[in-house]
Design a protein that fits this description.
heterodimer; A: 113 residues; alpha+beta; Arc Repressor Mutant, subunit A; two-stranded antiparallel ribbon; 4 helices; 2 strands; B: 11-stranded mixed beta sheet; 6-stranded mixed beta barrel; 22 strands
């Protein structure tokens, strides 16, 4: 597990967005979540490159859905986080938590909430 | 519809995006952007700015990065395939390779084609006919003009020709010139020479004549041709005349005559009475220097005296030019440099040997640019062009049929496509899908076409021209042919599928189409399908006119009176060069004996002897000086067709003598005598009495005219009467080979068998160069017109059938669209025949328009075939009357069948229909 691939921060955010959206995660929605909730406006190309890199690392998987009228009869590509992906974001979170604990200790717990 | 258009992003931007993106992402990403466009950008910014935003997105795509990553992913994708979540009814568009079409398009196309087997069958069949005809013709053109021998590094090889003193550049070279060039040049790494030869093969007592090549010793080495068996020639075998009787057998000869005997090397074969030791067998793919002709043996040039009674002079004489030369350029030497060097070399020769080499210039042409020989290539190209044009037209008609079918199908799918377009499906994707279907169809057609071509070629190869030399055309399907067929199929599918696909998916025509349902067939209404039918009719018309002209020409040719006896007769030609009879006296004695023995045969009544027959393959001109009528040639002589005959020729050949008398045995003695044709008199001595007049041969010897014979055809059946000179054979030198024409009470085949037997009885060692019946001889002249008429008729009939199918389709479609209207008419009292007439009229209107265009087209192009026609002009009235009648008849039938169906419509049911 120590040799787990590095997770970039956009990758981390994308994984989180897919997890948040549950079964209805697709490019457009993921991009919306990143823009509106994470304050990270990214281009559609960047989103797909990121998601496919995650797929390459085995952290997400994708499949084509049904065509829908509201998008000109085109199907969506849905994404879903694989257990490896969940592990990866949790590992990042663990690292951050540990770091934050160190920060709180130095400040004497001043900013903790 | 309008609102929908307003809500759609710019279509071109979508097409651009779909083109740039990896196919497995295109749909998802374009969909995401469209969704955002509709839901967020359009309401917030308005149409213009939203479009601008969309364009920005489309242009700003990081297509390269996306391609790279999806390519990497594609490589590992299959491992994920299994654990991918599957949803009921989910479309599996994951096709992770970068093929230009998607697998699901292919599956979809296959499903649709299987669903309508009737359509598929007719479409594939008509394409197969078109593509098959093209493949067959191309195979022939390929075999004759395009196929190259398997030589090593052919790009380094050049053909070297010597010019004639009249300036014609691509003629043959002499052996001494060849030897000088080989030994004194610094541009070629090797120069080889070859001369064709015929030889008698003695096997089991039955002599036969085969075609061979005499070659320089390093012929196979320089050309890079490895032996199938044994070795090629050694330097010493090309060094001294008549010292090394060795031979390399052609592969086919080895197979046919020696049953692929693996121990053939070292054995002896008898060629023209001399024993040769077999040293090797040429490879199967190397069939000899000339396509069409099959070389049976290769012998060293040094053995040339063994074949012809020339005592090897040709190896020393510079003005005996019979060799074709090939040379391999040294690395870095260009053809232009070679030509410059050859020019200098020829100038040197001309200086040293002015008698033989003045004005003779050697030149090089890249071997890859020559098919047979520059002169032959030039004559063959128009024929090849005509054949390919004809089959091209057939294919065009087949393709037009396909396009017409596709349009009809698109009509049926109108709803489906409209719905998909309304949902905003990309037009690009729809067009692609329709095109995939067409391409699948055309590839199936191509596959069936190859089968059809094979069959046709087998049939065609059965029609061998009746000439004595063995010929063989290798028309097997090779890479060229496959590539051609694949190309033609793809082109047909794409080109003729594109228009219907675009038309079917054009959102703007949807209302038009709907409208048309009510108005179809009204006068003045002209849709794409009608245009296609008009095109078909016009092209079929041109083809049929061509076919008609060739058929009429053949008819004419068959009725042309050649001016000599054409009833049952046989002719044999003993090959004296390949016999042991060498002196004139010996040969004359042999001929005399042969004639006597032939006449002694109970079946044979008459024997005529001539050194050639009119309407044979060869043309022989002799030089004559007419003292009163000088020509403008430098020597003032005339080149006139001439023949050597013996007394009795005119009686046997039934050529009437109109003035003077026919040659008699008494004419053989005394001064030399000739007879001339009527055209000769007309041309040179119009209105004068020529009998008793004396002219001279090319050397100035006097020739007295003793009679005038009625004109006969000399070179071709179609020619105008031609001046012709008959020389009396026998007193002066004996020409090499003589035809013995025998007539009698028996049938021609019986006469031929008798003549063969007698020749064999007189001397079994004399081979026959040629033995045939009169009919076979004449069929040689008719071979080309017969083939042309046959081929064009077949293709014309094909075109007619295809056009008929097209007309049938259009009329039956129009009828089906108008069922309701016809029902109303009939319920209002229109009779069945009114309805039929109306429907037929609709179809015939197209035929008339197409026919008129066809007449104009045909009138414009048939002049190009006039040179191949006998006895009729290219605007032959009978043809131009008969063909329209034929076409109209077929068209009427094609229109009538579906029209009749319309009259059987039950008005009540019709009114209920759509």
């Amino acid at each position: 597990m120590g040799k787990r691939p590095q997770l970039g921060d956009l990758e981390e955010l994308a994984l989180l967005a897919v997890l948040r959206l549950g079964g209805s995660a697709y490019g457009g929605r993921i991009r919306e979540v990143l823009r509106d909730d994470a304050g990270r406006p990214v281009s559609i190309s960047t989103i797909y490159v990121t998601l496919m890199r995650l797929e390459e690392k085995g952290m997400v998987r994708s499949w084509m859905g049904e065509p829908t009228g509201e998008r000109g009869g085109k199907a969506r590509r849905y994404f879903e986080v694989r257990p490896e992906g969940v592990e990866a974001v949790e590992a990042v979170r663990d690292v951050r938590d540990r770091m934050w604990e160190g920060v709180r200790a130095a400040e004497g717990g001043g900013h903790g909430s | 519809m309008a609102r929908d258009h307003w809500a759609s992003p710019p279509r071109w931007a979508t097409l651009l995006m779909e083109a740039r993106l990896p196919s497995e992402l295109a749909e998802a990403m374009a969909g995401d952007l469209e969704e955002e466009y509709r839901n967020r950008v359009l309401p917030a910014r308005g149409k213009a700015r939203a479009d601008l935003w969309y364009w920005g997105q489309a242009l700003g795509l990081r297509a390269g990065a996306l391609r790279r990553i999806s390519g990497r992913l594609g490589a590992m994708r299959p491992t994920f395939e299994r654990n991918r979540p599957r949803r009921v009814g989910s479309r599996q568009t994951d096709f992770w390779s970068r093929m230009p079409m998607r697998l699901d398009d292919l599956k979809y196309a296959a499903r649709r084609l299987i669903k309508s087997p009737g359509f598929t069958l007719v479409a594939v069949l008509s394409l197969a006919l078109g593509i098959g005809a093209n493949t067959a013709m191309f195979s022939i053109v390929n075999a004759v003009l395009l196929r190259r021998l398997p030589l090593a590094h052919p790009e380094q090889l050049v053909e070297v020709y010597t010019s004639e003193d009249n300036g014609y550049p691509a003629s043959t070279s002499s052996y001494p010139d060849f030897a000088d060039l080989r030994d004194h040049n610094d541009i070629f790494s090797g120069v080889v020479g070859e001369r064709t030869e015929i030889a008698r093969v003695d096997r089991d007592g039955e002599p036969s004549v085969v075609f061979g090549e005499l070659v320089s010793w390093d012929f196979f080495r320089v050309l890079g041709v490895p032996m199938a068996l044994g070795r090629s020639f050694l330097p010493e075998e090309g060094a001294t005349p008549m010292t090394h009787p060795v031979v390399v057998l052609g592969y086919r000869m080895w197979v046919k005559e020696y049953g692929q005997d693996p121990g053939i090397v070292g054995k002896t074969v008898r060629l023209s009475g001399r024993a040769f030791t077999v040293v090797g067998v040429a490879p199967k793919a190397f069939t000899g220097t000339f396509p069409v002709l099959v070389t049976s043996f290769y012998a060293p040039m040094m053995m040339s005296a063994a074949f012809m009674d020339s005592e090897g002079q040709e190896l020393e004489q510079r003005n005996s030019r019979s060799m074709f030369l090939k040379a391999r350029l040294k690395p870095g030497v260009t053809v232009a440099q070679a030509n410059a060097a050859l020019k200098a070399f020829s100038a040197g020769l001309a200086e040293r040997y002015p008698d033989s080499n003045k004005k003779r210039i050697m030149s090089a042409v890249s071997t890859e640019d020559v098919s047979i020989h520059p002169l032959v290539d030039k004559a063959a190209l128009p024929v090849a062009g005509l054949l390919l044009t004809v089959v091209g037209l057939v294919l065009l008609i087949a393709c037009v049929n396909l396009a017409s079918f596709l349009l009809a199908r698109a009509e049926d799918r109108r709803r489906e496509i409209a719905v998909r377009l309304a949902l905003g499906a990309g037009r690009g994707a729809l067009v692609r899908q329709l095109l995939v279907e067409t391409v699948v169809l055309s590839l199936l057609g191509g596959l069936a076409g190859i089968g059809l071509a094979r069959w046709t070629l087998d049939l065609l190869m059965g029609f061998k021209p009746p000439i004595p030399v063995p010929i063989e055309l290798d028309v097997s399907v090779d890479g060229h042919v496959l590539l051609f067929t694949l190309g033609v199929s793809l082109l047909a599918g794409l080109l003729f599928g594109l228009v219907p696909a675009l038309q079917a998916t054009n959102p703007d025509v949807a209302p038009t189409l709907k409208d048309e349902a009510g108005r179809a067939g009204k006068p003045g209404r002209f849709n794409l399908r009608s245009t296609l039918v008009v095109t078909q009719v016009a092209f079929s018309f041109v083809l049929l006119i061509g076919a008609g002209l060739f058929v009429r020409s053949l008819q004419k040719a068959q009725t042309i009176d050649p001016g000599f006896y054409t009833g049952p007769a046989a002719m044999v030609m003993p090959m004296m060069e390949l016999s042991d009879y060498k002196t004139d006296d010996q040969i004359r004695e042999y001929y005399r004996t042969l004639k006597e023995r032939l006449l002694a045969d109970p079946d044979i009544d008459q024997v005529a002897i001539a050194d050639r027959l009119p309407l044979g393959m060869s043309i022989r001109l002799s030089s004559f000086i007419l003292p009163e009528v000088p020509s403008d040639r430098p020597d003032g002589d005339w080149e006139i067709d001439a023949v050597n005959v013996t007394p009795g020729y005119f009686e046997t050949m039934e050529v009437p003598v109109v003035e003077g008398h026919a040659f008699t045995e008494a004419d053989v003695y005394g001064e030399a005598k000739i007879m001339v044709s009527q055209a000769f008199v007309q041309r040179f001595y119009p209105g004068q009495d020529v009998v008793g007049r004396t002219i001279q041969d090319g050397d100035g010897r006097p020739l007295r005219i003793v009679g005038v014979a009625r004109d006969t055809k000399v070179r071709t059946l179609g020619e105008a009467p031609r001046p012709y000179v008959y020389r009396l054979q026998g007193r002066t030198s004996i020409a090499g080979m003589m035809e013995f024409i025998v007539r009698g009470r028996a049938s021609a085949p019986k006469l031929l068998a008798d003549a063969r037997r007698v020749v064999n009885e007189v001397d079994p060692d004399v081979p026959l160069f040629d033995a045939k019946t009169m009919n076979e001889h004449l069929s040689l002249m008719l071979f080309a017109p017969r083939m042309a008429a046959l081929l064009l008729s077949v293709f014309g009939a094909l075109a007619l059938a295809l056009a008929g199918v097209g007309i049938y389709g259009v009329v039956s479609y129009a009828v089906s669209r108008r069922t309701r209207e016809l029902g109303i008419r009939m319920s209002l009292g229109a009779s069945a025949s009114d309805v039929v007439t109306m429907a037929v009229k609709g179809g015939m209107r197209l035929v008339v328009i197409g026919g008129l265009i066809g007449v104009v087209l045909a009138g414009g192009v048939t002049w190009s075939i006039s040179r191949w026609l006998y006895g009729i002009g290219s605007t032959d009235v009978a043809t131009f009357v008969a063909i329209p009648l034929l076409l109209s008849g077929v068209a009427l039938l094609a229109a009538f069948v579906p029209a009749r169906r319309a009259s059987k419509v039950d008005p009540v049911r019709a009114l209920r229909s759509e």
